[in-house]
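sorry for the late reply, my laptop died twice this morning and i had to redo everyting from scratch. anyway the thing you sent over, i finally got around to it. pasting the sequence first so we're on the same page, its 372 residues, then the predicted structure underneath. double check i copied it right bc i was rushing
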Amino acid sequence: MTQDTAFMRLALEQAQEARKVGEIPVGAIVVKEGRVLGVGRNMSVATHDPSAHAEIVALRAAAQTLGNYRLDGCELYVTLEPCAMCAGAILHARISRLVYGAADPKTGAAGSVMDLFANPRLNHHTQVCANVLADECSGTLRSFFQARRQTRAAQAQALSDDALRTPLSVFADLQDYPFTPHFFIDGEKLHGWRMHYLDEGCAGAACVVLCLHDLPGWSYRFKALIPALKAKGLRALVPDLIGFGASDKPKKETAHTIDLHLRSLQMLLASLGAPKLLIVAEGNALHLARMLVQSKVVRVINVVQVTSDPDVASDSRPFPDKGYQAGGKAAARLVQQMELASGKLAHPLDGVILNGPPDVMAEQIFSITCDG
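ok and here's the structure:
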């Protein structure tokens, strides 16, 4: 790994921090003689400051460290080509070298739209090095804007008259749930109800880990396992069953049937084109997992179990008042029906019970996917 690559990865870490809080994921660091003097990430939204781009934040931090607004001999690493504002600040600070990742064809001022750094009339000249980890930097931005478009489209979907929708703002302050929301809707087949799911990790993974929450429950139950699965190079697909989490909530308890939940999962998996699955079933979701295996909609290489670990405070969050709680009220009846139905099926796959911290469980899951 070259020095430029190593420092750009630090800038990418800052970009990911920006993404977690809803800012455009751009990160920057200032370095002098191998020492990091300042770090920055986009903060314009949070601070209501149009100048709070990652580069500006990093330059300010470095200037405070040195006690000087002139940053002679310093290098700036940023994941996105600077705009004209940031280019001016970089030149004014006397940065000796700029290293950036992704080009910005709309506002880039280092060669894409204009090149302020090549203007011979300026009294300082900064050396520019482009396209360091360009694919990773551009991929971070691309996935952010794709997820934002999906979220806006989902929010624009009309809500069925026979359901309620928990506002996404209810989940916004969950610091340990920094995942991008996705929504699946299939008109008549799902009565117009939309299904929320998380899709984290390697999109090209040969095996998808489908995490099914207990009844009652929701995807928050897997908040610690998801990052551990991503660290092993696995893709985690974590839906909220209709009536739970951020999915739409039918107003009537009678809407909750085995057919609804099995069919919605089948349609979701078919739409995502999952090649093969390993199912992680929490508590009573094991019965639903068994029926999903039997349906043969996708190839399931194994079903593993985790014990239910309810968090009273978080479990109540998706259900702000009793109007949203039909799913929870129907859970006991539904679980009993699922238990009876799955008991009639052959289920040779679900013999593994996972335990231990998330990284240990992720390692066990990784081993099973490799064997499968």
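The radius of gyration is 24 Å.
thats about all i looked at so far, will dig more tmrw
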